[in-house]
Each structure stands twice: as structure tokens, then as C-alpha cells.
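Extended Data, panel c. Modelled sequence:
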Amino acid sequence: MARSSMAVFSALWRAYGEGRLDRALHLVDPECEFTLPDGRTYRGHDGIRDYLATTRRDWRTVAITYDDVREDGPGCIVAVGRVAASSADGRTTFERPQACVAEFRDGRFVRGRVFGDPADAAVYAGEIAAERAAQSDRPPRS
């Protein structure tokens, strides 16, 4: 039986926080897609590894705290919180709101998008829900 979306999100988030997300890729679909607020998109397991390497190289510290994590329909998790970071060269520091919408299928992460504005994440989650509802209203293919 596949794990629930919340269980997979929690396991991936815990692995990320412990610096071992690369060891939890069995919970990530090989064709996954992960998009940052600046539009950069990472695809597949290699993309996730590239994202982790880039983050380690460019940032001395990154602290992401999600205070509100909820399932927003089947297979969709919305997490809202804050991110604080300082660059590797020490020239850039920031703290700001952040939200993430993560989609799951068959107990695996398939698509995620990070937003700087939680309201944008709510709109995006609504679009996902509408897309899924439209798909479920279509007659099955013969």
C-alpha cells in the first residue's frame, strides 16, 4: 500500500532537514519536477541532486520553517512558513515568507513549486484541485 501524501511529505522534509535528502529519493518520482520562486526548475533525481548541490554551494545557511502544513485535496500538500538564508560569501541575508505546494502520486513526490507569497500558493493549489476535478469528470478512455 502506498504511503499517504502527508507521510511522504513529512519523510522528505525530515530527510532534507537532516541533510540526507539524496538518500530518500525512493520517495521521489524519477520524472519529478521542482520549481523555485525565481522560475528555475529541476527535473528528475539528477535535478534534485543539482538543486541540493547548488544550495550547498551558494548558501552558508538556509533555514525553512513550515508552521502550517495541510493536505489540500488528495495528493496535494500545501506548506506555509518562512525562509531565512545567508549566502556563502556573506553578502546576502534575508528572511521572508515562503510556501510550497507539493503533489504526490502513488506514494511519491511528483511535482513541487515554491512561492514567495503564500497567497500565490493558495491560488496554485486551487488550480491543481480544479484540474484534478476536470480530469475526474472526463469519461474513461476506451
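Residues 5-137 form a domain with the Nuclear Transport Factor 2; Chain: A, fold (CATH 3.10.450.50). This feature is highlighted in the accompanying rendering.
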